[in-house]
Each structure stands twice: as C-alpha cells, then as structure tokens.
Backbone:
C-alpha cells in the first residue's frame, strides 16, 4: 500500500478528487447510503466548483445533498449541489434546491 507521505502527496496533487472521496466517506460516516449509480468521476466536478468559488469569492462553498442523507437522500452525482456554507446551514435537513 501507499505510505502516509505518498497519500498526502497524492491528495495535494489531486485536491478535487481527494475532496470527492472524503465527501463520500463523510456521507457514509453520517449514516448515508451511496447510490448504486454513484460514479466518483461525476461527483468530482461539484467539489471542483465549490473549491473554485471559495477561492474566487472568499466565501465558503459546500457540496450539499439536495435530498438530505437524513431524509433518505443518497450520496450520488444526481443528489449533489453547490451552495454557500451559509445557504447550506440555513437549509439544514430540508429538501429544496
């Protein structure tokens, strides 16, 4: 397997893909289910966009589940959206776009 230093280097060199993987892991830790239709490469652009917007605006953006995991929403590309952190906190576990 990869050593810790190799993993850290890969994460630095692949920040969007790494963020997408961490997002999937976080969803699972929070009790969410990953859809059978989940494709990592289709989720990465959401993380790319949230990081780009955060960088360009100085406002934090999050990748959010349209249908919250706590309401049965799945972790998959068709249930993701990019919101400001403020919008995400205000949304909470409600279901709206």
Residues:
């Amino acid at each position: 397997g990869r050593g810790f230093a190799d993993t850290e280097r890969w994460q630095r060199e692949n920040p969007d893909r790494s963020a997408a993987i961490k997002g999937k892991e976080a969803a699972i830790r929070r009790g969410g289910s990953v859809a059978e239709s989940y494709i990592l490469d289709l989720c990465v652009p959401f993380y790319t966009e949230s990081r780009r917007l955060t960088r360009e605006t100085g406002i934090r953006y999050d990748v959010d589940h349209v249908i919250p995991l706590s309401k049965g929403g799945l972790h998959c590309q068709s249930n993701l959206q990019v919101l400001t952190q403020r919008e995400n906190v205000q949304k909470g576990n409600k279901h709206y776009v």
Q: What stands out?
A: The first strand starts at residue 33 and ends at 34.
